[in-house]
UniProtKB/TrEMBL annotation:
Domain GP-PDE: 36-281
InterPro entries referenced in this protein's UniProt entry, alphabetically: GP_PDE_dom
Pfam families documented for this protein: GDPD
Descriptive protein name: Glycerophosphodiester phosphodiesterase
């Protein structure tokens, strides 16, 4: 506990000293469109027939006037698979990791007992061209943070889709800042003091308190809705004007609470347009 206290105290001091560095680009031209939408978490999925991160879920999001959030992993042959977990156990019932398989091998698996397969990012992007924006989460693994950031940007540049890119891994954001500074980038986080996720104490504090922001300079912070009262989020987003996105919203009441505070929402398990205001009021 003593170690934790001093780590937290150091975090406070560092943030106060570097607070002036935490301001994002509120004037980035893509915010005009990004702020108009609500974002379906892993697509607008609906069990059992429409699995998460499936082409059907992304088509449904577009049809209902929503943007979408999706996750990308790097396959063994350096293709970008749209799937949340590295392991295929939960979604396909198979003991295998995406990073160990080729894109061709992935075609042989089906999602959640349906006929839907794991799509590639290049297959999803045409669905959103000229229609709705995307939030793309980089799922780095096995030290591939620079490669997944680079290949994702190269793929996005082939299509005319308004999007922003986020990751829990600050190294991905640093790569974006140094190599694609015009891409709208965001730090994903939550209160890791409540949910350790196997991280070291220092890393838990740094991510929870957004300490990496002084290097990565994110344009937005995507923070777990239940943890949004975190003082670091208030300092970064509410004092310095960095856009906040909340995940994962699971009720109309929470959606209204987040949007009253000016936050964008990533939602699932309900109709986000049920208030009669369309994609976003």
């Amino acid at each position: 506990m003593k170690e934790l206290f001093w780590v937290a105290a150091t975090a406070v001091v560092v943030l106060l000293l570097l607070e002036f560095l935490l301001q994002g680009r509120r004037g980035h031209p893509q915010w005009k469109l990004l702020r108009k939408f609500r974002y379906a978490h892993r697509g607008y999925h609906q069990k059992p027939e429409i699995p998460e991160n499936s082409m059907a879920a992304f088509r449904r999001a577009v049809e209902h006037g929503f943007g979408a959030e999706l996750d990308v992993h790097l396959t063994r042959d350096r293709r970008l698979a749209v799937i949340h977990d590295s392991s295929l156990k939960r979604t396909c019932g198979v003991e295998a990791d995406v990073e160990d398989l080729t894109a061709e091998q992935l075609k042989g698996y089906r999602l959640e007992g349906t006929e839907e397969r794991i799509p590639l990012l290049e297959e999803v992007l045409p669905l959103f061209e000229g229609k709705a924006p995307l939030i793309v989460e980089l799922k780095s693994a096995r030290g591939n943070w620079n490669e997944i950031a680079r290949l994702t940007c190269e793929t996005l540049e082939r299509f005319h889709v308004v999007c922003c890119v986020e990751s829990f891994d600050p190294r991905c954001l640093l790569w974006l800042r140094e190599n694609r500074p015009l891409v709208v980038r965001g730090q994903l986080s939550q209160d890791f003091m409540k949910s350790p996720s196997g991280l070291s104490t220092m890393h838990r504090v740094a991510l929870s308190c957004l300490l990496y922001n002084f290097r990565t300079r994110p344009d937005f912070v995507s923070y777990r809705f239940e943890d949004r009262r975190n003082w670091a989020v208030r300092l970064c987003c509410r004092s310095r004007g960095v856009q906040e996105i909340n995940w994962t919203i699971r009720s109309l009441a929470d959606q209204r609470a987040a949007e009253r505070e000016g936050h964008l929402v990533i939602f699932e398990s309900y109709d986000a347009s049920a208030d009669g205001k369309g994609a976003r009021g």
